[in-house]
C-alpha cells in the first residue's frame, strides 16, 4: 500500500516538474524577447504547479526549489525592466492581475523585493502589504512555503540599523514587526498541519511537520541577526511576543522546537537578563513537551557562558540566576506530574553543573540541589530505571570532578542521601568513582569523622548492602573492587598518632562487616597501617604518653591480634600466619618480648592446626625461620622454645629435599652475626649434619625407586652452608668437614649410577671457583681457605 502511494507521489511530482519546466521554457523565451505580458502569463502558469495538494512536504519542497530558481531569474528581469524605465509601481499593480491567488502572491513577493530595492516607497509599507496579502493562502503546506519565500527575498532588505533601507519612515521596529508577524502566521499554519487528514495518519503528519520545522525557525534566526535588536528591544518586544505564540499554540512539537530555537539563536547575555521571563514560560508548556532537554540546554549554555567570560559572573549574581533556575525547575516538575524520575534527575544534574561552573564557592547551593533531588526521589525506593541511575551517577560525579577533593563532597549533607537511591550495582560503580577520585588527586583523609563519612559513601564495596552476597559478580571484578578499597585504606593518614589510631579503629569497624570473602583483601592493608603507626611510636616513653592515651604500641598490638583473629573465620591461614610474623617483627623492634612471643605462638598454632598443604608448609616454615632469625628481643628460654619448635617442624616436612633445606636453614637460628648471645657452633653443626643425613636418605630413596643416585644439588647447597659458617668463624665447622663434603660430592658425580644434572654440575663448579677465589685473596681469608684442596 505504502509503495503504491510513493509511486503515485513520484508520478505527480514528475507531472508537476514537467508542467513547471514547460512553462518556464516559454517564460524564458518571453523574457529573452522582452515580452513582459507573456512572461507574467507563463510565470503564473508555472507557479500554478505549486497549488497541488497531492505531494508530501518532502516532494513539495523539490517542486518549490525548482520554482524558486526560476523566480530568481524573473526577479533579475524585473530589475532590468525598471532600469529601462518601466514603472515599478505599475509592475507591482500588474502582477496582481494573475488569475490564481498563489501564483499572484509569489509574483507579488518577487516584484515587492525589487520595489523595496528601488526605494520608491518606504520598505515598511511594502513589507506590511506583502505579509498581510500572504494571509490569502491558508493551506498549511502551501502557506508555509509561500511565507518562507517572502522571508527569503526580504531578509536582506529589512530596515535595520546601518542598512541602506533605514530612513526617517523606516526603523528597526518595522523590521522586527514584519518578521514577528510572518513568524506568527507561519507557526499557526505549521500547527494547523496536524489537523489535515484522517486521524490514522497522525504519526505520518507529525513526521512531515518535523521536516518543515526549519521553515518556521528561520524567522527566529533572522530576528537574531537584526543589528537593531538590542537587549531592551529583545526584553520588551521580541521575547514576550515569541513566547506568547509558543505558549498559546499548545502544540507539543512546536513548543519543544521553538523553545530550543530561542535558546540556540539568541545571545547568552540576553538569556541571562531575561531569565525570569524565559523560565516563566516553561511550566505553561504542554505536559508532554520534553522540557528537561530544553531547560538542560539553557543551563548548559549559561554554564559555558560563565566559564568563557569571567566578567559575566557578577551578572549571574545580580540577576540571581541560581534561585530563578532552581525555582523554575521546581515549578516544571510540579506542573508535569507524569515526568519520569530520570527527567527530574536530569534537570537537577544540569542545575548542579551550572552551579559548579557559576558558583563553585557556594557549597550551600550544591547541597540545596542535592536536597531537592532527594525530595523528588523520596518514597521511590531503589531506582531500577537505568537512565535515572545513570543521571544520578553524573549528578554525584560532578562535585568530585569540579573540586578534585572528596573532602568537599563529604561536607555535603545530602550527598550520601542521594546515593541511598542507587541500586546495589550502581552504588558500587559510584563508590569506585569516589575511590578513583581520591587516588587520582592523592587526597589525604586525615580524621576519623571524615573516614566514617567516606566509608558510609562506599559501603557498597565494604559489605553486602542487602545482606546477601552477589554470586553472579565476576570474580575479577570483585577482586578489582576490593583491591581499590585496599588502596584507599593506605591513603588514610594523620600526623597525630591518637587520631590515626581512631582512623584505624573506624576502618576496622567497617571492614569486619564485609564478611569472609572481603577480609583477605581489606585486613592486610589495615594491619600494615597499624604497623606503620607502631613504628612511629617506637622509643616513645609510655609514661610521657600517659595511661589515658589510645595509641600505645601495646594497645595497637592488641588491636592487631583481633584483626588477624578475624581472618581465621575466612579461613586463610597462610595469610594470617604472614601477618602474625609481621606483627612479631614489629613487636621485636618495639622491645615487647611477651607480645612478640604471643604472635609467634599464634603463628605456630596456625601452622600446626590449619596448614596441611605440603607446599604451603614449606613456604610457612621458611617464613618462620627467616623471621625468628631476625628477632633479638627474646631471652634464652623463649628463643630456645621457638627454635626447637621450628627445627621440629622442619624435620617433619613431607618431602625429604624440603626437610633437608628447612633443617639447614634452621642452622641460622643458632648463629646470628650481630647477636653474641646467639652463637652456638655445636648446634649449627648438628643442624648441618642432620641435613646431610636427610640428603643422603633422599639420595638412597631415589636410587631405590629410579635406579640412579639422583642429583647432588642438596649436597652442594649444604657445602655452601658449611662455607658460610666457616667464614663467619664457627669453630665447629672445620677444614676436614668441608674437605670430606667436597670429596663426597666429587665421588657421587663420578659414579656410574649418578644422574646427569647440568644445573648441579654448574652449581658445584661455581662453588669450587669461589673457594679458589677466596684462596687468592690473601690475608686472613686466604690463609683460612688455603688448606682446602679442590
TrEMBL record:
InterPro entries: ARM-type_fold (IPR016024), Vps35 (IPR005378), Vps35_C (IPR042491). The keyword Transmembrane helix does not apply. Its main location: cytoplasm. It is a peripheral membrane protein. It comes from the Eukaryota. It is found in: Cytoplasm; Endosome membrane; Golgi apparatus, trans-Golgi network membrane; Prevacuolar compartment membrane. One of its GO terms (biological process) is intracellular protein transport. The keyword Coiled coil does not apply. One of its GO terms (cellular component) is endosome membrane. Keywords: Cytoplasm, Endosome, Golgi apparatus, Membrane, Protein transport, Transport. Belongs to the VPS35 family. Plays a role in vesicular protein sorting. This is Vacuolar protein sorting-associated protein 35.
